[in-house]
Prior knowledge:
CATH class of the largest domain: Alpha Beta
Bound molecules: adenosine-5'-triphosphate, magnesium ion
Amino acid sequence: MHAIQAQSLTKTYPGQVEAVKGVDFEVEAGEVFGLLGPNGAGKSTTVGMLTTTIVPTGGRALVGGYDVAKQPLLARAVSSVVFQEAVVDRSLTGRANIELHARLWGAGSQRRIQELTDALGLAELIDRPVSSYSGGERRRLEIARALVSEPAVLFLDEPTVGLDPRIRHELLDVIAGLRARQELTILVTTHYLDEAERLCDRVAIVHRGTIVALDSPRALLAKLGSEILEFRVAGDPHSALAALRLKRLASTDAFAVGARVTVPLHGQTAADVLAGLDAHPAEISTRVPTLDDVYLQLTGAELADAA
Ligand SMILES: Nc1ncnc2c1ncn2[C@@H]1O[C@H](COP(=O)(O)OP(=O)(O)OP(=O)(O)O)[C@@H](O)[C@H]1O
Ligand SMILES: [Mg+2]
């Protein structure tokens, strides 16, 4: 049985906003699965449907084998979610927030709460009101709160957004550590590529409500080969790209963002490709591909706008 299964899962909001246009994916038990996409791609809507807070308008989703539309309470009972927006009560202490959530789900012994408090480095804060926590501390509390019911599946919607780099990396370590501790399936959404690469076994790249690629970060990278060429042109980068494609010096995986053209070399030399240009290139460089390239190639300039 898969931990999560989405089949043609669709959400059209009132006003014909097609937020999620029929996505298909399966997440294995114990896997860390990433939904990577720019602002508005449909990540939170997908998480909302999988956690039963948003009603799908088409398709089907199972969490822990339970249909989110037909058996929402059962699907919800085997999973937990840390939403993009904060949901903890700021006037209560961290401990009171966790206890409240534990009671709600009929779970969480004092021992479990103690364990989570220690594991997430909250021991010193737990009896302080949440209003006194920093952003990173509040995030850790929210994760502890989500884990108190011992879920089989944990949903994390942009867990590190708005955190400074040091706290972000600390939190990524915490999340990476979770999977080592137990048989936990994690679905995490992010628009940070390094995060997806560091945490996820597999990543689905979401663009305008559809999945445009789904594979391990390593396999996604491998498709671009071992070396890419990058340069700027003074004129229209898209016509430079079209010219290279016509001469078969660039294929469909080459792309242009702003004035910059990126061409996976796939065994050709940079000189071969540059010789095929009519325009004069500048700022020429070659380098190994990154997940950024995969992402930009599939989603165009939108990530650059979102970042
Ligand atoms: N309640 C709603 N009513 C109408 N449209 C909505 C609603 N919620 C979201 N949308 C739209 O659906 C699309 C997807 O939104 P969603 O929040 O799922 O994106 P996201 O990938 O999580 O983006 P972000 O990275 O900014 O969090 C957006 O175009 C958004 O404006
Ligand atoms: Mg979102």
